[in-house]
Amino acid sequence: MLRLGLVTLALVATPLRLLCAQGAAAENRCNYSIRYYCDENGCNSLPHEGEYLLIPDPRELQLAGIRNRYEGPPVQVRRCNAGGCTVVDVTSFQSGAFLNVWSIVGGGYMLKFVSRPLRPPGLGGYETGQFVEVDTSGLDTFISYGSCPWDQS
Q: How many domains does the chain divide into?
């Protein structure tokens, strides 16, 4: 009986591991529309020309939490500027029409995407693919808004 249980577990776990091990074939470029730097004295606009995010296919990003639980390679977001890109290993959790993404290590980095059409469309002025990014450095905070291609067909 124990052997049958282990075989059943292996048959169920293998497809999950294969699903989790699949890498993203392509990345999507997300552009910032506005960025802010905030500290205890308030917030100021930041230039954002030449800065962008590279994210995996949205389906890969949505699987980040599952991949982490089943020891798949981490899903990565890349924050880029003229000097190159910084890789952030992330996990995720779907919450209604929003996909919450945050750094696996450190906890000072978070993205929130509109990942599903809102009902009614445009509720709150949000469209699928829009995001907010929050990054902390000590007690200082960088807040950015932008949009990504978000095709889930």
A: 1
